[in-house]
What we know:
mainly alpha
Amino acid sequence: MSREERPARDPAEIEREINRLDETLHNIEGCLLQLQGKLLAQG
C-alpha cells in the first residue's frame, strides 16, 4: 500500500504507539541489565 493510499493517522494514536514502544524498549533494556548482572556474577 503506497503512502497516498493509506489513511492519515491520528496524532494521538501515533503518540500512544510511541509510548507503548518506549515502554517495551525500557523493559528490554531492563532484561539486558539483569542478564549482564547474572553473567558478571558467574564470571
